[in-house]
Amino acid sequence: MASQTPDGTPSPPGRNPYEMRLELLHIAKDILETNAHMAREGKLKDRPSFYTTEQVISTAKELNSFVSNR
User: Fold this and answer.
1) Which of 27, 4, 9 is nearest to 70 (CA)?
2) Domain carrying residue 34
3) Which phi and psi (to 5°) does residue 36 adopt?
4) How many domains does the chain have?
5) Cβ-based burial of 60 (10 A; exposed 0-12, middle 13-18, buried ≥19)
6) Taking all residues of the chain, what is their mean pLDDT, rounded to a whole number?
């Protein structure tokens, strides 16, 4: 049986839900890493120059919510 997304629609061929979740975590980490780097350079004054695992997971959940929203 083919993999399905959280809303029950089939996932793209070659991608299963675990791979998609892992990709969202990587994207979230990249976003936070970029923000932290920019904060260290003084380009983002309202952002901390570090990030936590909880922030990565929270950002990934936000991305998932956006992607899953129809």
Assistant:
1) 9
2) 17-68
3) -65, -40
4) 1
5) buried
6) 83
